[in-house]
Design goal:
It is elongated, with a radius of gyration of 25 Å. The chain has 2 domains: about 170 residues, no CATH class; about 140 residues, no CATH class. A hairpin with a 5-residue loop joins strand 5 and strand 6. The chain contains 11 helices and 13 strands. A 5-stranded mixed sheet has the order 9-8-7-10-11. The chain is an alpha+beta fold. The longest helix is centred in the middle third of the chain and has 35 residues.
C-alpha cells in the first residue's frame, strides 16, 4: 500500500466561498503571527520556540478578545499550519530550505483538514462548519476513503481539493525494452532509439497574450478593483501555461514508463543550471526536474526501473562506438565524427546511447563501483 493525492476542482457556493475565505484568512493570520512570535523570541531573548509553545500561543490568541474571530472556523487547519511551520523550521535548520516566509493573501491559499474536520459519505465531501457538500467535479473515483484533505485556492481564483488516499499500484507486464533519455532545449528529449520529442515551448506560445495582460496591469491604479481584475487575468494566463506544461509532461512520462522496463536519465541540478540568465527561462519552461520526478514515481508504481547517472558523465563527448572522449565539445556542434573509429554521431542521439549504457552499468554494478565512480565519469558535457 502507498499513498497518493487525488486532486479535483470544485465550484463552491457563495456560503462555502465565504467560509473558505475566512478559513484561509485565519490560517494565514495564525501562521504569520506565530512566525513573528518565534522570530522575535529568538532575536530579542535568544529563545527557541517549538511546536508545543507555538500551539500554546495559538490557544492564547483564540482566548484573546481582539483575535476571537479565530473561533469562527475549524481549529484543525489552524493547528495543521503550525505543524507545517514546524516542518519548515526543521528544513531550515537542516540546511534544506530558506528561513520560513510570511504568507500573502495575493498568492496561493490553502487549508488542511484531518479526519476529525471533514466527512466523506456516499461519494460526497463535507467540511467542518459547512452543512452542504463541496460541489466537486469527480473526474475519477477515489480508491479509498481519504485520510487528509487540502482545500486550496490559486492566484487565478480556482478552487481545488486534494484527497490523500491509500491505494495498491498495479505493476505493468515486463517488457525487454530499455531506453536512454538525453534532455535538451531544442528537443525536449531525445531517446537512444533516435526518437525526438520537440519542445512545445508553452511560455513562448502565450508570451504575446501575457505581455499584453501585464501591460494593462501596469496601467491600473495600485489597490483598485480594476487592478485586482487585471492581476487575475495575468494569473489565469500563468495557470494556463502551467497546466499545458503539466499535461504534456504527464502524457510523455506515462508513455515512456508504459513502453520501457528500464529508463536511464541524467541527474541534472536544475537549480544550478537556471543561474545562467540567458537560458534560465527556457530551462524552467522545459520542466526537466518535473519530468524526471514523474518518471521516478510512475516507474516505481509500475514496477519499472529508473537509473540516474552522474551529471558530469561526458555523454555528449564520448563516442558510443569506441569510447573515445573528445577534449572539447561546444554546444553549437550538433554532429561530429570520432577521430579514433571515424564513426559519425548526432550529438543528442549519441548522448542518449551513452546514457543508456552508463545507466545499465549502474544497475548491474552499483553506483560506486570501480570504473563508474566519480573520477571515471566526470567531465564536461
Amino acid at each position: 500500500m502507498t499513498t497518493c493525492a487525488y486532486k479535483y476542482r470544485f465550484y463552491p457556493t457563495p456560503e462555502q466561498a465565504k467560509l473558505l475565505a475566512r478559513t484561509f484568512g485565519c490560517v494565514r493570520f495564525v501562521y504569520n503571527a506565530v512566525l513573528r512570535f518565534r522570530t522575535d523570541a529568538f532575536y530579542e531573548r535568544r529563545e527557541k520556540i517549538g511546536y508545543v509553545a507555538a500551539n500554546a500561543e495559538l490557544s492564547r490568541m483564540k482566548k484573546a478578545e481582539e483575535t476571537a474571530f479565530l473561533n469562527e472556523v475549524s481549529s484543525v487547519p489552524l493547528q495543521q499550519c503550525l505543524r507545517h511551520q514546524q516542518a519548515a523550521f526543521k528544513n531550515f535548520f537542516d540546511g534544506r530550505a530558506r528561513y520560513p516566509r510570511f504568507k500573502s493573501k495575493r498568492h496561493h491559499q490553502s487549508a488542511e483538514f484531518t479526519r476529525s474536520a471533514f466527512k466523506y459519505r456516499d461519494g460526497q465531501l463535507f467540511l467542518a462548519k459547512s452543512k452542504t457538500p463541496l460541489p466537486i467535479r469527480w473526474s475519477r473515483p477515489l480508491p479509498s476513503e481519504p485520510t487528509t484533505i487540502t482545500v486550496s485556492k490559486d492566484s487565478a481564483g480556482r478552487y481545488f481539493v486534494s484527497c490523500l488516499c491509500e491505494f495498491s499500484p498495479d505493476a505493468l507486464p515486463s517488457t525487454p525494452k530499455m531506453v536512454g533519455i538525453d534532455l535538451g532545449l531544442k528537443d525536449l528529449f531525445v531517446t537512444s532509439d533516435g526518437d525526438r520529442i520537440g519542445n512545445p515551448r508553452h511560455t513562448a506560445t502565450y508570451a504575446p497574450r501575457l505581455a499584453k495582460a501585464q501591460r494593462r496591469l501596469s496601467r491600473k491604479k495600485l489597490g483598485s478593483k480594476n487592478s485586482a481584475k487585471a492581476r487575475q487575468k495575468v494569473a489565469r494566463l500563468h495557470a494556463k501555461i502551467s497546466d499545458c506544461r503539466m499535461d504534456s509532461l504527464h502524457k510523455l512520462s506515462r508513455q515512456i514508463v508504459n513502453e520501457n522496463q528500464v529508463i536511464c536519465v541524467e541527474s541534472l541540478k536544475v537549480k544550478n543550471m537556471v543561474r545562467n540568465r540567458s537560458l534560465a527561462k527556457s530551462i524552467s519552461d522545459a520542466g526537466w526536474g518535473e519530468f524526471v520526478r514523474q518518471l521516478a514515481y510512475k516507474a516505481a508504481w509500475a514496477g519499472r526501473q529508473l537509473s540516474t547517472i552522474d551529471q558530469w558523465y561526458p555523454s555528449s563527448k564520448r563516442c558510443s562506438g569506441c569510447g573515445y572522449v573528445m577534449p572539447e565539445m561546444p554546444l553549437q556542434i550538433r554532429a561530429w565524427s570520432c577521430p579514433e573509429c571515424a564513426a559519425e554521431h548526432d550529438r543528442d542521439v549519441n548522448a542518449a546511447v551513452n546514457i543508456k549504457a552508463a545507466g545499465l552499468a549502474v544497475l548491474a554494478l552499483g553506483e560506486n563501483v570501480s570504473g563508474m565512480g566519480q573520477a571515471s565519469i566526470s567531465g564536461s558535457r
